[in-house]
Design brief:
Two copies of one chain form a homodimer.
Chain A: E1 6-12, H1 16-28, E2 31-37, H2 41-49, E3 55-57, H3 60-64, E4 69-72, H4 76-86, E5 95-98, H5 104-110, E6 119-120, E7 123-125, E8 146-149, H6 157-169, E9 173-176, H7 179-205, H8 212-217, H9 223-229, H10 234-243, H11 245-267, H12 271-290
Parallel strand pairs in A: 1-2, 1-4, 2-3, 4-5, 5-6, 8-9
Antiparallel strand pairs in A: 7-8
Chain lengths: ~325, ~325
């Protein structure tokens, strides 16, 4: 790319996604200037120190002012207020987008404040880690992952193409769908998995006959896999569940129905039912690996714990 | 260790655990001779080719004959039959153990065949990967993980100490408890997590409004973490659920009860309930990392998919 894709990009919120976007933009020279807003002085200082932003603003309005790309990287619950605050300074012809995990709520809360002539294109990069904050970001976060854009009907095609090219330059593959469909898909691929992970961690913490210490010691039997996503940012996830209620409850209903059937198969010792189901699950895992969305390395390629004997990686991948 | 701990170790079953035990024994010279039995010629050939065993036997009886340590590394459902077959050739003073994920059923099915003078000490290394078969093993599998032994009351202490030392030399930490307590602990740290993982994969496969292809593409939102353990050996896991029914149903009951409460909190928009629960879950994750049972690296330290731009690991651990 000979010239930066954008003159001035405003990151409203500088956590895991905001900071990773900065790294990804710097990697490919996608923005001439990156300005950012964070609520706390501590985060603004960190953003400057880490070189994530050229300018750290105390208000969202100041950051958004004059930007040709504004990216809301804040929890869903506050995006409406931010939109209201920045609306007066949004430039005609600029793009306003976000990275939230629910899109219907963003359309509802943000859409009504978007001035005429500003291209509003909600977005969601399907990537992340369990870590939070400006120091947790890295340029490769979006590489090979999907970014979903949900432009409302009638959105300018050139603006959609420009934002798609931006995400592709950040390493992502881009898919366009409606906000409603996005929220349904993510309910099963992300929201319900997180809910279940939070739930089993909670269940394990409140048992009388098994201690917390035992749960931790013997977590390598499978439980530890769940705790990773249950360590994700609590505010972000609270807002996801409050704002995608309908789709989450629909998918949770299906999950519970299936779990009840599985429970019954165990109670009555239905060996064939269990076996068939377990065999089928392997096909989905293979599909995810073939699609480049996970590693085939055993145990996700985890290293043995540092300081213990034989800390090398498995020799057979 | 100056001399091998055992003269002749018999591995009855040469899958992930059997083959990893062979590698771990070779690493530290724990056995003068390793013999093995596998049901299929293909696995016996592989075991010889990979150097896992010095001798591959067509029957379990032949392998167990003359061994001073016999380790059952087969699915729980067949261990009773194997015990009956090998009982006549078990040497006085030898140790008979296993690696099964349920211990009550092993005591029930294997215990009754153990001849007088043979030390029967059920065991369970809390480690594994989602891969199966003789080629999936590696020496470091047990490093830093826990191995639980459940010796029946009255078991010879010297034999328990000898088997404990063996597992420690294989890299494990050892804990002694009753079979009943083991089965309860593992129900929550391993069996129910696997069941839930199998269940959500199954739910996702049978939706009408979300396609399989969408589930796979957008799995990086959390779903893919569940598919790893849902790719584990189907026969082994069928046998786990059939043989630890009571504890699994108890823990599943608690899980479902908690999930219903969480579902209700979402339905009625109880923001504080959700937030508090999500914050608490982070403490369990921290405990697991501090105990050396998982990595603190984001995303389990997964690498970016091969062949895509920027496939390096996150620079900030």
């Amino acid at each position: 790319m000979s010239a930066p894709a954008f003159e001035r990009v405003a990151l409203i919120g500088i956590g895991l996604i905001g900071s990773s976007l900065s790294h990804a933009m710097r990697r490919r020279g996608l923005a001439r200037t990156i300005v950012g807003h964070a609520q706390t002085q501590k985060t603004r200082d960190a953003a400057l120190r880490l070189g994530l932003v050229d300018q750290a603003c105390a208000t969202a309005r100041e950051a958004a002012s004059g930007a040709d790309l504004v990216i809301l990287c804040a929890p869903i619950g506050v995006c409406g207020n931010i939109a209201e605050e920045i609306a007066p300074v949004l430039r005609r012809g600029s793009i306003l987008t976000d990275v939230g995990s629910v899109k219907g709520a963003i359309v509802r809360d943000v859409g009504r404040f978007v001035p005429e002539g500003v291209h509003f294109i909600p977005g969601h990069p399907i990537s992340g880690t369990e870590h939070s904050g400006p120091e947790s970001g890295f340029a490769e976060l979006f590489d090979g992952r999907w970014c979903v854009l949900t432009p409302p009907p009638g959105t300018d095609q050139a603006a959609i193409d420009r934002l798609s090219a931006f995400w592709q330059a950040c390493g992502s593959q881009v898919e366009i769908m409606t906000a409603e469909h996005h929220d349904l898909v993510l309910a099963i691929t992300s929201h319900v998995p997180h809910l279940i992970a939070y739930n089993i961690v909670n269940t394990a913490r409140h048992l009388e006959r098994v201690t917390d210490s035992e749960v931790i010691k013997f977590s390598a039997g499978g439980f530890r896999d769940f705790t990773r996503i249950a360590a994700s940012d609590p505010v972000m996830w609270r807002d996801v569940f409050l704002n995608n209620k309908e789709a989450v409850l629909e998918m949770l209903g299906r999950f519970s129905e299936d779990l009840t059937a599985l429970q019954r198969a165990i109670r009555f010792g239905e060996a064939d039912t269990l076996y068939k189901l377990f065999v089928e699950a392997r096909a989905t895992r293979r599909g995810i690996i073939q699609a480049g969305q996970d590693t085939a390395a055993p145990d996700f390629g985890r290293h043995a714990p540092a300081g213990l004997a034989g800390g090398s990686k498995p020799s057979k991948p």
